[in-house]
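Researcher: Batch entry, complex prediction.
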Amino acid sequence: MPIDLRLDASEIVLFTDLYELTVSAAFFDHGFNEPATFEVAVRKLPPNRGYMIAAGLERLLEALENYRFDDAAIAHLDSLKLFKPAFLDYLRQLRWSGTVRALPEGTIFFAGEPVLQVHAPLIEAQLVETLVLNQIGFPSMVATKAARCVGVAGGRRLVDFGPRRSQGIDAAVIAARSSYLGGFHGSANVLAGKRYGIPVFGTMSHSFVMAHETEREAFADFTATFPKLSTLLVDTYDTVRGVRNAAALGTALREAGIKLQGVRLDSGDIRDLAVRSRAILDRAGLGEVAIFASGNLDEYKIADLLAERAPIDAFGVGTALAVSDDAPAGDFTYKLTEYNGQPRLKTSAGKISVPGRKQIFRALNPSGGCYADLVALIDETAQTVAREFRPAPADVVALLEVQLEDGKRRIPRPTLADARERVTSGLAKLDARIKAIRKPAEYPVRHSAALGAMIIDEKLHAETRQD
Amino acid sequence: MPIDLRLDASEIVLFTDLYELTVSAAFFDHGFNEPATFEVAVRKLPPNRGYMIAAGLERLLEALENYRFDDAAIAHLDSLKLFKPAFLDYLRQLRWSGTVRALPEGTIFFAGEPVLQVHAPLIEAQLVETLVLNQIGFPSMVATKAARCVGVAGGRRLVDFGPRRSQGIDAAVIAARSSYLGGFHGSANVLAGKRYGIPVFGTMSHSFVMAHETEREAFADFTATFPKLSTLLVDTYDTVRGVRNAAALGTALREAGIKLQGVRLDSGDIRDLAVRSRAILDRAGLGEVAIFASGNLDEYKIADLLAERAPIDAFGVGTALAVSDDAPAGDFTYKLTEYNGQPRLKTSAGKISVPGRKQIFRALNPSGGCYADLVALIDETAQTVAREFRPAPADVVALLEVQLEDGKRRIPRPTLADARERVTSGLAKLDARIKAIRKPAEYPVRHSAALGAMIIDEKLHAETRQD
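Model: Structure tokens for the complex:
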């Protein structure tokens, strides 16, 4: 019997807010199905973020390529007694035929920039709103959180320890993938390792120590089975005594030609315990035994620990990463920006949207650093917008790339390693002040002159739309 | 081609932290597989929570009943080159045979109480740690968040609008189910409606208005297709003008015998706009047209709006609910409390665990209200613990119920409606001060005398475990 954690392809199309279906049915009824453009953007960056990392695209594209209302889906919609047969017939024959332009996974972006653009017959573009936002938002939040941890960890190993606290299994798998994309070294999540080839790591549980009569026996038993995974959890009882027990074992093992890998601290005053652990290990001649820290860590605590010179070699980051706890959701929106060749905007208080099909242009200085972005209209080019940057750029690159055309992928699928490398190289180009984990500086993002003019026109036009 | 959102039953067993497998392999190697008890509890309640609602159990039980390492799972584990053939053979033949006692879904609980107890051969209990925590934690957080909203909404309709901001699709489906369990009236999530029979609701999108040349045409078109779903989104441009357009349509429709259902406010100063909208509608003789509010709402904002007498009839709650934004993860732990008949505890700084197989007893006063809980040993009874409550209780009930025995469900599966009713009746028994959404009073939870004595003994015992 399959259990209901399973999500079949035929159910993906039902992962939608009801209004996307009712609105689509009303569009259908009234003959609205000309080409439309919707764009995804964050209205403002989450607290303490100076940049974000795009993620989630590859899975979304896979879902769109396989978007089908099969008999089971149609039967369910019919059972709601809301939809006319003609609309259900339309859905039954629908194959998703849109064009998707998007930032490749791992691209750095900022508030107000179109992360992803759907250009499709209106109904097709409307139907996928929830799917698109859901698949792009959370992965991008986790990739960003991970990159922030990497940014402060100074090359030390970082491992995702979050599956137990994730918001479901899907969330845990996404978090493992997105944190690896953001620069983590791996995850505890065995399923994510299988799905995505992510390196998996693990140490030892408190229960392993507790099930034994003594801590020393537990350490010896675990190390006998897994000498190469011998990172011993030393805080089940008194941590300092635990480190001494680990050191005693490490010394004995060395005589047998086996290297104790590390000790793991998971509670208490981590900095103080790391200093004391290092001293105990060093005095025992175990300078090569690593100190692994975990327990409610995040980028802020990692930065503080390292600023206080805590001798820690690796970090397990759990809850804070897995749910992006200081910003568990981003302010991502999916807004109609053009219909039937005409720009569109909404002027809701505090939630104005930006009209037009757009492109993002990023200016690079002679040393390769990026220093400003321009959001422009799609028919503008790097050459035409170059003169709008001050100082004059050494190079200008367009960031949105065609991902799907007529609903099909036209370019080879990039690997997760490609996306991870894109994060590394992208962050290397970004000013340190933008990357600060607290009160970052604001990266300059402006509208091109042509887009600015369109916004003014459309605001005026919007006023006539309520007459 | 299946897309990789799918999660087969054979993959559930791989949804684990690597350490659960390595620790299990080390237990196996050293002959540790006597009966063990692990218990799930929250160390402390999340901020501003005076109580929590248990949820997620039914899906967990389904996973445990179907727990199998099939050939694909074994092949993957073998590929990690960590596990000996004997251990893989053991996993291949493993059928999950444990006993699960747990709070039925919808039960109110507090910090320090065992929400769920696994009693099984040590390795079986160890292997499911991540699965258990993942499946209980987030659903309970959302059910709690939802119950808090219900508690302040005074019977007004509440709808889950969160799927687009959820942490993945699984999270969105869990949130829809858990919020309904917590007392919401339904969800926008069509997939969750299909899976769980939850009522689905929807209004209208900004894009529907924007795709039309004028707002009036959009309102007319939508209402023509869905007269019974005619809740018109009035904030695409100027909200007050939008309400006037809706009122004009409502008046015209009335002459045709059709009732306009409502207007929806999604931005701006919601209280002020609700007052003005109500006045406009009432002046048009549309007193029965409802005002629906959405846009970054949560229990705090709903309480404030209603305290300010905002004339709102229904609320859509999105992001804050879907990710439980002020507490996106709970401090749930899964700790070994007994091995081979002997109690166990850890004494980690700030993270001490409570030994023994336990039961929770809840004291009721003569009017049926609950006023204190006692965490006791499993062989204590309502009669034996009754004398430990002050004042003397009119009744004492044991809360943990046997859910699985020998890995199989022995009692009929309760319905989602049962769980929802349990929330309602449970909250009716709880003092209002505990239910306050800000700075709630603390509900009294104590240890029985017998448990207290065991803790003292085991703390002493723990000191000898590091010799």
